[in-house]
Design a protein that fits this description.
By secondary structure, the protein is of the alpha/beta class. The protein has a 6-stranded mixed beta sheet, with helices on one face. The protein has a two-stranded antiparallel sheet with strand order 5-6.
Length: 174
């Protein structure tokens, strides 16, 4: 029984999702020519006002640390879009009972899902060249999301998400 509990616990911990990020960018762009940014004034992020403020603070801090400056007339505009969705549980455990003897057999098996469905959040970051009005870099981050998380947990989660997303910006063009 202790062995089964250990397996269930490890599986449950492994199902906790980390941030997954997919990137795309224009290989023809010289990213070293950009030093200023701002956000679209009509941006509709899909986040609550409080989460949007947290996200923008984290982005400003991260971009500033990388040498970028917030400007009224930027070289890059940033647009953010997000959505939340419920994912189906991906892990389950099978419990089986079997018996047999004298050429007679029987069995029963039950699949038990581990945990319920999880809330996920997808946030898309678009960086647009302001002069050409052309998308030059994009990242889509997906991570687990708890609706009832405390403000400090939300802030930490968004800060870590931004850190991971912008770890590959500017891209190292080959």
């Amino acid at each position: 029984m202790r062995y089964l509990f250990s397996i269930l616990l490890v599986s449950a911990l492994m199902s906790c999702s980390s941030v997954k990020v997919n990137y795309d960018y224009d290989k023809a762009v010289d990213f070293s020519s950009y030093s200023t940014y701002n956000y679209y004034s009509d941006m509709k992020s899909g986040l609550s006002q409080l989460d949007e403020k947290r996200l923008l603070r984290a982005m400003d801090s991260t971009l500033k640390a990388r040498g970028y400056r917030l400007a009224e007339e930027p070289e890059l505009f940033i647009n953010i879009m997000s959505n939340e969705y419920r994912s189906a549980p991906s892990n389950n455990v099978g419990v089986g009972i079997g018996g047999g003897g004298r050429n007679v057999g029987g069995g029963i098996s039950v699949g038990l899902p581990l945990g319920g469905s999880n809330m996920q959040r997808s946030i898309q970051f678009d960086l647009v060249d302001a002069q050409r009005d052309a998308l030059v870099w994009q990242a889509v981050a997906e991570s687990g999301f708890r609706e009832n998380a405390s403000p400090s947990v939300r802030e930490d989660k968004l800060r870590n998400l931004v850190k991971k997303v912008f770890s590959k910006f500017p891209p190292k063009v080959k």
